[in-house]
Amino acid sequence: MIFVILLSCTFLQLISMNRTLILVSLFFISSFTIWAQGPKEITLKDIWTDYTFYAKSVPGFNFLQDGKHYTRLEENAIKKYDLVTGDFVEDIYTQEGMNAYSFSPDEKNILIKTESEQIYRRSSKARFAVLNLESRKKTPVFDSGLISNAQFSPDGSKVAFVHENNLYYTEISTAKTKQITKDGSFNEIINGMADWVYEEEFGFTRAFEWNEDGSKIAFLKFNESEVKEFTMTGYQNGLYPDYYTFKYPKVGEKNSQVSVHVYTIQDGKTFDVNLNQSIEYIPRIKWTPEPRDLIVYTMNRLQNELELLKVDTKAQSTSLLLKEESEWYIDIHDNMTFIKDGKQFLWTSEKDGYNHIYLYNSDGSLQTQLTKGKYDVTNFYGYDKQRDRVYFQAARKTPMDREIYSIKTDGKKLKVIADKQGTNSAQFSSTYDYYVLNYSDINTPSTYSVHSNNGKALRSIVDNVRVKKLMKDYGVTSVDFMEVPTTDGVKLNAYMMKPKNFDSSKKYPVFMYVYGGPGSQTVTNSWKGQNYWWFQKLVAEGYIVVSVDNRGTGARGEQFKKMTYKELGKYEIEDQINAAKYLSQLDYVDEGRIGIFGWSYGGYMSSLAITKGADVFKAAIAVAPVTNWKWYDTIYTERYMQTSQQNPTGYEDNSPVNFADLLKGSYLLVHGNSDDNVHFQHSAEMAAALIAANKQFDTYFYPNRNHGIYGNNARIHLYTKMHTFVLENL
Question: Is the pTM above the cut of 0.90?
Answer without folding.
Answer: yes
